[in-house]
Design goal:
single chain, 208 residues, alpha/beta, TIM Barrel, 9 strands, 25% helix, binds S-adenosylmethionine, binds the ligand Nc1nc2[nH]cc(C(=O)O)c2c(=O)[nH]1, binds iron/sulfur cluster, binds magnesium ion, lyase, queuosine biosynthesis
């Protein structure tokens, strides 16, 4: 099979990096996890903290067996698929292989592409820069909105109306604007208590 065909079937994927660390954000903050960061993103967030991931062609294309063979070397059995935008790819084969090896599977996604894969936890972080695909709303376990501008509170509420009723709601300050927005988020959460706060704790700990 040609490389493009292997990628289209989700059997080989562009891997930017993979690392064993502590989940810094959201519901699983503080949990040891193996991160698989796939290359490629077409969303274009102005404040993205991994812009070097955007160009898929820069990264080696690896068979999913090789990606998983590396993951099993570490003691943790929580895996986080991120990117880039991981839903640019069919994540069915990768997640089924991870499940076979006993992993709990989490994803970090903007939801801008059709949902795929077998995930135990879906963290959906919608962006103004590219509209989410409708398939994400029923599967999202967590809505994590990055706050970079005052209008992001209204953007967050718009999405809260569309996700399923069990979806957990979180606001996360954009890193460079966190001095301005963290106090506003704290106040917002106190008076809209269905919203929780998520911080990028790995950046405070200075770990990947
Ligand atoms: C780098 S993204 C990769 C996954 C996917 N493309 C997405 O945006 O959800 C991982 C998480 O980091 C968040 N993020 C990216 N840049 C950020 C920044 N400068 N400050 C705060 N959160 C950021 C995203 O919203 C997302 O929740
Ligand atoms: N420690 C750590 N936690 C994270 N949670 C989401 C991340 C991501 O970039 O998707 C991330 C990351 O890059 N590092
Ligand atoms: S969707 Fe995610 S990876 Fe893509 S630009 Fe936005 S934050 Fe970065
Ligand atoms: Mg990150």
């Amino acid at each position: 099979m040609k490389t493009e065909e292997l990628i289209a079937k989700g059997l080989s994927l562009p891997l930017m990096e993979a690392f064993y660390t502590i989940q810094g954000e959201g519901r699983f903050t503080g949990h040891p996890a193996y991160f698989i960061r796939l290359g490629g993103c077409d969303v274009g967030c102005v404040w993205c903290d991994v812009k070097e991931s955007w160009e898929a062609g820069k990264w080696p294309i690896l068979p999913i067996e090789e990606i998983v063979a590396e993951a099993v070397k570490y003691p943790g059995r929580l895996v986080v698929i991120t990117g880039g935008e991981p839903l640019m790819y069919d994540l069915g084969p990768l997640t089924s292989l991870l499940k076979e090896k006993g992993f709990t599977t989490n994803i970090e996604t903007s939801g801008a592409h059709p949902f795929s894969g077998d995930f135990d936890w879906v963290c959906f972080s919608p962006k103004k820069f590219k509209k989410p695909h409708p398939s994400i709303y029923k599967v999202a376990n967590e809505l994590k909105v990055v706050v970079f501008h005052n209008s992001d509170f209204a953007f967050a509420e718009e999405h809260a109306l569309k996700v399923n009723e069990n979806c957990e709601l979180r606001l996360q300050p954009e890193w460079s604007k966190s001095e301005k927005f963290t106090p506003l988020i704290i106040n917002y959460s106190k008076y809209h208590p269905n919203w929780k706060i998520s911080l990028q704790t790995h950046k405070f700990m200075d770990i990947p």
